[in-house]
Amino acid sequence: MKIAENTVTTELIRELGLFEGLDDQRLQALASLFTAVDIASGAEFIRDGESADYLYVLLEGRVAISVSIPGRAAYETVVSTLSKGQLVGWSALLPETDWQATVSALKPCRLIRARAESIRQLCEQDPVIGYCLMKNALVVVGQRLSESRLQLLDIFGGRDG
After folding, report:
1. Rounded distance between C-alpha atoms, residue 11 and residue 118, angstroms
2. C-beta of residue 13 within 8 angstroms of C-beta of residue 31
3. Does 45 map to a domain?
4. How far apart are the first and last CA of the chain?
5. How many domains does the chain have?
6. Is residue 20 part of a domain?
């Protein structure tokens, strides 16, 4: 994983749905926590069971979210794919949490990332940031649960009991 040296601007994060509803001052506070990261195609940058230490937002490229299904084949099943502007790694918003899935780049990607602890501290210091971030992230979580449910129905559908 190569970390780019450029900084993340307020203008950049203003365009991302995760930060919708925040004023420029609060966007600047958030932008100061993020760094741009380049991920090579095929690279796993989130691994199921490891500590959820960063929050990511995808700027370019495409990633796959996969999970292991006990009792099934010895490989992971892709439950979702994400593209530009989408939140990656919402588990990082929760304290002392491990990743619940593996995320890998399907093609070269550029993301922004921030240390999970720094994001959580800012959310506690500024309840407006905390509320907006959690509200917007919860919309994403709901969508992902629905997508995962449909994907698992495709895998296990038609089976009784």
Report:
1. 20
2. yes
3. yes
4. 43
5. 1
6. yes
What pLDDT digit, counting tens, does each position of 47-99 carry? 999 999 999 999 999 999 988 876 666 667 788 889 999 999 989 999 999 99
Distance, in Å, from the CA atom of 133 to the CA atom of 28, rounded to the nearest integer, reads 14
What pairs with residue 102 in β-bridges? 66
Distance CA 18, CA 136 (A): 5
Give residue 60's domain range.
Answer: 2-156
Task: Quote the pLDDT of residue 4.
Answer: 44
Between CA 91 and CA 54 the distance in angstroms is: 9
Does 161 reside within a domain? no
The CATH number given to whatever domain includes residue 56 is: 2.60.120.10
For the entire predicted model, the pTM comes to: 0.84
